[in-house]
Amino acid sequence: MRHIRIKDGMRYPSIDQLVTKSKSKYKLVIGAAIRARQINEGDQPLIENPHSKKAIGIALEEIYEGKVEIK
Questions:
Q1: Where are the domains of the chain?
Q2: Rg from Cα positions in the chain
Protein backbone atom coordinates (compact mmCIF):
# COMPACT_ATOMS: atom_id res chain seq x y z
CA MET A 1 0.00 0.00 0.00
CA ARG A 2 1.26 3.45 -0.91
CA HIS A 3 0.80 6.41 1.35
CA ILE A 4 0.40 9.80 -0.17
CA ARG A 5 1.40 12.70 1.96
CA ILE A 6 -0.67 15.79 1.40
CA LYS A 7 0.87 19.07 2.36
CA ASP A 8 -1.60 21.11 4.33
CA GLY A 9 -0.31 24.45 3.04
CA MET A 10 -0.61 27.51 5.21
CA ARG A 11 -0.93 27.11 8.93
CA TYR A 12 -0.97 30.72 10.06
CA PRO A 13 -3.26 32.52 9.94
CA SER A 14 -6.04 29.98 9.53
CA ILE A 15 -8.89 30.57 7.12
CA ASP A 16 -11.27 30.86 10.06
CA GLN A 17 -9.19 33.70 11.48
CA LEU A 18 -8.92 35.44 8.11
CA VAL A 19 -12.63 35.34 7.30
CA THR A 20 -13.29 37.59 10.30
CA LYS A 21 -11.20 40.32 8.61
CA SER A 22 -13.33 40.57 5.49
CA LYS A 23 -17.03 40.52 4.75
CA SER A 24 -16.56 37.95 2.00
CA LYS A 25 -14.08 35.24 1.10
CA TYR A 26 -14.01 36.62 -2.45
CA LYS A 27 -12.83 40.05 -1.29
CA LEU A 28 -10.28 38.38 0.96
CA VAL A 29 -8.80 36.39 -1.93
CA ILE A 30 -8.69 39.37 -4.29
CA GLY A 31 -7.20 41.66 -1.64
CA ALA A 32 -4.53 39.12 -0.72
CA ALA A 33 -3.65 38.57 -4.38
CA ILE A 34 -3.28 42.30 -5.01
CA ARG A 35 -1.09 42.74 -1.93
CA ALA A 36 1.01 39.67 -2.82
CA ARG A 37 1.65 41.13 -6.26
CA GLN A 38 2.80 44.40 -4.66
CA ILE A 39 5.23 42.45 -2.46
CA ASN A 40 6.51 40.49 -5.47
CA GLU A 41 7.09 43.76 -7.30
CA GLY A 42 9.28 45.09 -4.50
CA ASP A 43 7.08 46.51 -1.73
CA GLN A 44 8.45 45.77 1.70
CA PRO A 45 6.32 43.67 4.07
CA LEU A 46 4.35 45.70 6.59
CA ILE A 47 5.03 43.19 9.37
CA GLU A 48 8.27 42.17 11.03
CA ASN A 49 9.38 38.54 10.94
CA PRO A 50 6.53 37.01 8.93
CA HIS A 51 5.93 33.28 9.40
CA SER A 52 5.67 32.76 5.65
CA LYS A 53 8.39 33.16 3.06
CA LYS A 54 5.96 33.45 0.14
CA ALA A 55 4.32 36.74 -0.85
CA ILE A 56 0.77 35.37 -0.58
CA GLY A 57 1.42 34.12 2.96
CA ILE A 58 2.93 37.46 3.96
CA ALA A 59 -0.06 39.28 2.46
CA LEU A 60 -2.49 37.13 4.44
CA GLU A 61 -0.51 37.72 7.64
CA GLU A 62 -0.63 41.49 6.99
CA ILE A 63 -4.40 41.31 6.52
CA TYR A 64 -4.84 39.29 9.70
CA GLU A 65 -2.69 41.68 11.74
CA GLY A 66 -4.66 44.69 10.49
CA LYS A 67 -1.81 46.22 8.46
CA VAL A 68 -3.85 45.92 5.25
CA GLU A 69 -7.55 46.71 5.13
CA ILE A 70 -9.83 45.25 2.49
CA LYS A 71 -12.57 47.65 1.42
A1: 15-64
A2: 13
